[in-house]
Amino acid sequence: MPAPDAYQQLLALSREASLLSATSALLAWDQETYMPTGAGERRADQLELMARLSHERATDERIADWLSQCANAPGDEPQQAAVREMQRDYDRATKLPGKLVAELAATESRAQQAWASARDASDFTEFQPWLEKMVALQQQKADCLKQDGQTRWDALADLYEPGMRAADLKNLFAPLRQRLVALRQQLDLGKKPDETFKHREIPEPQQEAFVRAVVGSMGFDFERGRIDRSTHPFCISIAGDVRLTTRFHKDNVLDALGSTMHEGGHGLYEQGLPTQHFGSPLAEAVSLGIHESQSRLWENHVGRSQAFWQWCWPQAQQHLDTACAGQSAQSVYALSNLVAPSLIRVEADEATYDLHVMVRFELEQALIDGDLKIADLPARWNELYHDYLGVTVPDDRRGCLQDVHWSCGLFGYFPTYTLGNLYAAQFAAAADESLGGLDQLLQSGDFTPLREWLHEHVHQHGRRYSPAELCERATGAPLSSEPFINYLERKLHHVYEIA
Ligand code: ZN
């Protein structure tokens, strides 16, 4: 069969796999939003069947042959990129022996239950045997996936951030950690933002109308998406239809705004992927780090900027009414940038969040490389929290048992959160320069040029370039922590009135 046909065959199969994944996504979205509790058991069966059908397509024996035909007769550049990514997916889907896949799945579900119960009891020793088993399985998985020059940890991280290696991350993180710790100490001496607004009670319908208006202004397309509610906000794509969720607390409208802008940023990326390539890797998000950069850019660089609040404050007053009394754009801007080192990663502010991630990065690498005994994890965790965040961990529940990730086998995942922050800052700086100043645009509520810049430089490319190449093409420089830390220092020195 000549190569063009082989490529068409690959595309047809890949399209079916995408449709099946999208159907799973719809089932999963429903499960998290509207599904009645009694439907849980059958829903799990449905999801399992869909996963099996997707896997059958991803590992179809004909793929190897089609891929090698394509390699012998490469098409144009986008086609070559699509074939490269299909090869990557095929290798990943076929490299793990069936026995290991089954053992991982069984261990994940039981380890997660053990983790939840250990966390409730705040007792690491209950989770310890499961974590030992999970780490051993992850080491086996890494050995199957490992390519030339990769460490075991690198092989696992590559699943989430293609091409990223621990050695590169250490170089990015070391100078960043020093400056983040120094910044945290400086802010202790600065002028703390007024927290009155944070505690004002605002009815949910008012909060909802407000955050919907903001996400609409960002350019989220409600004709091809929805916003609903869930305990933990998320964004999921169902073949060109993008579902966001958010949450409301009576006394914390800034949490609802931040969460919705965050998920809205993810949603704009999904809505911006090129629909004409649906089913091909060219229409898929390139990495978790790049995905997270889109959410953090809107949540932080837009939503926590002074210029944004100058535009947003009148909108807030209109929707939130008396809750805004006695407050101003300036006071709420300052409050949205409050820094308070804490024990819990998901509650962390913008300036200390990455320190939480660095603790996990260091520890999981040591676990996977066998340099840290699992029994020593809680003590080492507590030590790093003291050194990086200056806080004392009182118990395992608020210490090393707080995150679900390791119990689900997600090793190499945490750093993508910090990568998201670094990419976001570098994209924001590049957009600022190319658009002749973002502040002016945000101040007038004109978000279109920023959204279009992101579409042109990030969204439309799907997986055509690696994350590193995408970053370099969009910003003219390899990824660095400088734009991020410079932005944070500049903003927080201003908010905290530090000269
Ligand atoms: Zn996110």
CATH domain fold name of the largest domain: Neurolysin, domain 3
Give the neighbour order of strands across the main sheet. 1-3-2
Class based on secondary structure composition and strand pairing: mainly alpha
| Oligomer designation | single chain
Whole-Å distance between the termini? 70 Å
Radius of gyration: 23 Å
Whole-number tally of structural domains = 2
Tally the beta strands. 3
What proportion of the residues form beta strands (DSSP E)? under 5%
Q: Roughly how much helix do the residues carry, as a percent range?
A: 55-70%
Tertiary shape: globular
Low confidence ranges: none
Kindly describe this structure.
With 499 residues, the chain is mainly α. It has two domains: 120 residues; 330 residues, Neurolysin, domain 3 (Orthogonal Bundle). Helices cover 63% and strands 3% of the residues. It is built from 20 helices and three strands. The chain has a three-stranded mixed β-sheet with strand order 1-3-2, with helices on both faces. Strand 2 and strand 3 form a beta hairpin. Helix 5 runs antiparallel to helix 6, helix 9 crosses helix 12 and helix 12 crosses helix 13. The longest helix has 31 residues. The N and C termini lie far apart (70 Å). The mean pLDDT is 95. Bound molecules: zinc ion. Zinc ion binds next to helix 10 and helix 11.
